[in-house]
Write a structure and sequence with these properties.
single chain; mainly beta; Immunoglobulin-like; 3 domains; five-stranded mixed β-sheet; four-stranded antiparallel β-sheet; 9% helix; 41% strand; Hematopoietin_rcpt_L_F3_CS; Ig-like_dom_sf; immunoglobulin domain
Length: 334
């Protein structure tokens, strides 16, 4: 008999727990997004207009400026301080009737969009960003058109606001059109960018820039570098280079534009002075110059001091003798 009672108690307890869990799930916080600076009204569930309701935010009584009309709570000119979880209770029993998570923010503005091909002629990438903080989650949709056809857009796995697009053809004269739409719970905004293929070609900077002193040449530095590893076909699409250098003690750069060579000898360096050296790259036919490479520091050859082979003898200074001053008597006798 005792076992039967215990079993019934367990069943009843389980039913109560399930019922409570179901009730809690029904009262899971629902999100409400509102624009900053506006008045916001929250409705307590489906209670009618005559219901008497009290409100709490994050477990405490609502203290900010507000109006209460039956089951509706109105907050005036909301800002980020109004964010929180609002719960309402029907009086007089004080039973929770609703649970609202308020998120205050702004609708998106037109995103800034840039496109560039650093892997020409393989493809290009586009990146975008929202100029202003919206304070609430924001999402982006990207559409790329060429010859009135939509191209496949591959989102970058590392940079969330970047995508890559393969060139459908090389040397195309038809423009590309990229549309980026930003949207969140409060609205959306779009930017459309149109460009021709050759205008977005820009390699990455040259890599592994080095400069070595040339022995017995105190005014020369031998500079070398490698083409950017992201440039896929250096043979078919060669790069030309732009070298700049200056002594650390001066602000003015000296420049040398080179053809396809990946080395150059500086012949007018100041002897013994440390130099800063950078290189940029550009397709020989189209596009623009890359950014400058990481600065490399180098100093021309400095002659080693001669070794000491013998000790130099130091002459002992010769003692100087002076005649004694004659006394007054002797002078008088003279």
């Amino acid at each position: 008999m005792a076992n039967l009672v215990t079993s019934l108690c367990c069943v009843v307890l389980a039913a109560v727990v399930v019922a409570y869990a179901q009730k809690r799930s029904q009262l899971a916080a629902r999100a409400q997004y509102e624009q900053m600076g506006r008045d916001v009204t929250m409705q307590c569930g489906k209670l009618d207009s005559n219901a008497s309701v009290s409100w709490k935010v994050n477990g405490t009584d609502v203290m900010v400026q507000h109006r209460l009309a039956g089951p509706r709570l109105t907050l005036s000119k909301v800002d980020l301080h109004h964010n929180g979880r609002y719960s309402c209770f029907e009086e007089p029993a004080g039973e929770m009737r609703d649970y609202i998570s308020l998120h205050v923010g702004l609708p998106p503005t037109e995103p800034s969009v840039t496109c560039r091909s650093n892997t020409y002629p393989k493809g290009f990438y586009c990146s975008w960003q929202e100029p202003h903080t919206t304070h609430i989650p924001i999402f982006f949709e990207v559409d790329v058109q060429h010859n009135q056809k939509s191209l496949e857009v591959n989102r970058d796995p590392v940079h969330k606001n970047r995508c890559r697009v393969e060139f459908p053809e090389v040397f195309s004269t038809s423009p590309y059109k990229v549309n980026v739409t930003a949207f969140n719970a409060l609205g959306k905004a779009s930017t459309t960018l149109s460009f021709e293929e050759f205008t977005i070609v820009k390699p990455d900077p040259p890599e592994r820039v080095t400069a070595k002193p040339i022995r017995f040449n105190p005014r020369r530095l031998e500079v070398s570098w490698h083409s950017p590893s992201t440039w896929p076909d250096i043979e078919s699409f060669p790069l030309k280079y732009f070298l700049r250098y200056r002594p650390v003690i001066r602000e003015q750069w000296q420049h040398v534009e080179l053809s396809e060579s990946t080395s150059h000898i500086i012949t007018d360096a100041y002897a013994g002075k440390e130099y800063v050296i950078q290189v940029a790259a550009k397709d020989t036919e189209i596009g623009t110059w890359s950014d400058w490479s990481v600065p490399f520091h180098a100093t021309p050859w400095i002659e080693d001091p001669l070794p000491i082979t013998s000790t130099t003898e130091v002459d002992t200074p010769t003692e100087t003798r002076t005649s004694p001053i004659p006394d007054a008597a002797a002078v008088h006798m003279m």
